[in-house]
Amino acid sequence: MSRDWTLDAPCRGRDGFTPSEDDWSTTADLKRLCGPQLAVCGPCPFHAVCIATVKPAQARFDGVAGGRLWCNGEVVDALDDVFEDELTEPKLRASCGTEAGAKDHRRHGERVCPSCAQAEREMSARRKAAKARQPQQLQLDFATT
Question: Could you tell me the end-to-end alpha-carbon distance of the chain, in angstroms, rounded to an integer?
Fold first, then answer.
């Protein structure tokens, strides 16, 4: 299983991404309270997995997730460098976070979730390292000149 992405997320341990319902009543209030937190999402490589985990549209989320500010499950503000395909919430499967999980996504015609993509990269690197450690076979040429 791959390492939990939340351990490496820039927002880990920070407050202010989801305001208390008592603190705001309008979209302008929400932008004032949570808008500054968008900057924390800038360098984050986990926009898509954050959206897949929070499911802001489905949960009618209010706050910052995946490089966007959400109000009632709709994007009201976003960083300049976010991509529309990150909004697609891939189905999270029991096998997510593994190479088999990536194959499951492809078998079902889905975009591979970030945790499965990471697991694939790690497995590929391990295979490459193992192949490099294998002794090279010497090929002899017995043809006469």
Answer: 55
Q: Which residue's structure tokens are 């490459």?
A: 128
Q: pLDDT of 81-129, one tens digit each? A: 888 777 765 567 778 888 898 888 777 767 677 788 889 899 999 999 9
**3-class secondary structure per residue, 71-87:** ECCEEEEECCCCCHHHH
Taking the C-alpha atoms of residue 37 and residue 47, their distance in angstroms, rounded to an integer, is 14
d(CA 144, CA 2): 54
Instruction: Assign 70 to helix, strand or coil.
Output: strand
Q: In the chain, what are the domain boundaries?
A: 5-87, 99-129
Tokens encoding 113: 């979730």
Measured distance CA(19)–CA(41) in Å, rounded: 16
Is residue 38 within 8 A of residue 44, CB to CB? The reply is no
